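Fig. S4 source data, part A: sequence.
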Amino acid sequence: MATITDLSGRVAVVTGGTRGVGAGIARALLEAGAEVVTCARRPADRPVEAGGRTARFLPVDLRDADAVGAFFTHVGGEYGRLDVLVNNAGGTPYRMLEEGGAQRHARVIELNLLAPLTTSLAAHEQMRAQPGGGSIVMIGSVSGSRPSPGSAAYGAAKAGLEQLARSMAVEWAPLVRVNTLVLGMVRTELSYLHYGDEDGVAAVGRTVPLGRLADPAEVGDACVFLASERAAYISGASLLVHGGGERPVFLDAATTGN
């Protein structure tokens, strides 16, 4: 990765930063010089490393508000500051609305919307009290702006997350900036669960205007930018990281000529 800027001396927390997109974000922040703390309910099989440095891991259940508060108090006490929070933790199983009942769908909303709210409130307490404030980055999804059959609760949560970020950006200005990265499809170690084998991944990639799925490192680059002083006047924004979006289905259905 080409380092976008120098984040040396900054302290960053990446929720769900142990694998997939979160690990890509953590690596990008490490390469930019930040001290990185990742958190999840369980540690990864191997540490997240980049540039000869390793991210710190601390376990926490992001659905537990008291545990989240204790986590951020610990980070602030040990490192003396908190400059960046990336709300990456989330996800959903494929489940149609009539399956599983309202409580299961509510759990998806809890993880993808309420947990980022809880972590952001805890981070804000520290950021607002320190010189220079801080930067919060929400990891959103294109599922929040289009129909998402099979993941409707997830899409609703991501739509809410983007709106939440805009309101936070106004309420917490000027010390704390809040932005959203709106992701399309990203290739991770779990892509096969959604798209099948290599041929399936390639076929899905061809539906993207840029011809492929994103790499987690590319999401990390965007996070580093939003966390840096190069984005000092960017707040309340939604940055699309989706390779050009989705080709409209009607273009394939339409015929030309007679």
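Fig. S4 source data, part B ends here. The chain is about 40% helix and 15% strand.
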